[in-house]
Amino acid sequence: MAKKTFLDFEQPVAELEAKIEELRYVQSESAVDITLEIDQLSKKSHQLTKDIYSDLSPWQITKIARHPERPYTLDYIHGIFTDFVEMHGDRHFADDLSIVGGLARFNGQACMVLGQQKGRDTKERTLRNFGMSKPEGYRKALRLMKTAEKFKLPVFTFVDTPGAYPGIDAEERGQSEAIGRNIFEMAQLEVPIITTIIGEGGSGGALAISVADQVLMLQYSVYSVISPEGCASILWKTSEKAEVAAEALGITAHRLKALSLVDKIVNEPVGGAHRDTAQMVSFLKRALGDAWRQVADLKPKELLERRYERLNSYGRFTDTKAAK
What we know:
Layout: H1 11-29, H2 35-53, H3 58-65, H4 73-80, E1 82-86, E2 99-106, E3 109-116, H5 122-127, H6 135-150, E4 155-161, H7 168-172, H8 175-188, E5 193-202, H9 203-207, E6 214-218, E7 222-224, H10 228-235, H11 242-249, H12 253-258, E8 264-266, H13 277-295, H14 300-313
Helix pairs in contact: 1-2, 3-11, 4-13, 6-8, 10-11
């Protein structure tokens, strides 16, 4: 069994799991039956995990969203969709592997699916630039979305990026223009768009593929204008204040749902999506089905009016303080 990676605040669970593994080893090497003890410790570990995850800070949730074992876009594509055919290149410069996408079927319905892919090991992370896209990645995504519009196919996008790549080469090729163009075009796309924040939703890198009719967010994902470290570096001149910044930014799913910036929170298995990928895939597939049913029958004009109103509603608030 693959060794689990535990975060710093999960150390009590890590210690229990280590004891369970030791007992399993002892049982396999001897005739002593200690199944009951193992079961009791497993239940204790499960309950301890539930207790820890019932009271997480925004910074702890950020760490979960970045967990190296968390399911990525391709895990969801292969688990939820069928007949996936990957498409490559932006037809201008290159094929940015930090964004994957192509034609697929969702419950038998032809669709276009795309999203950011971070990579599992060092080699793949380098290949995919840690999920940080360059202009050609966003132009590839736009090409796929325009193809979907041409053939009247719904678009499913998955967001998981620290942010757009900030390198000189990306700036030289028009990074800000590529992101702005995607936001502009997605606002006018005449087919349904359903976006899911599956891990990190960082800055314009996330916005470039998340202008949608329905926005879903996994329970332990984050979505913000800047990373907590970036915010802390600007405000306090040190990234060590990232925990304070995470609290102030309001980056968690429940906070964003309360502000009507996301439509639905998709619950994760106990201990996060990485603890049970199959169950997470099942939860998300059901949620995507519900989201699709809400927009499937809308005509293009209704869809665009609804999307326009949605975008204009961002930032509205009601002052509930009693007048004095």
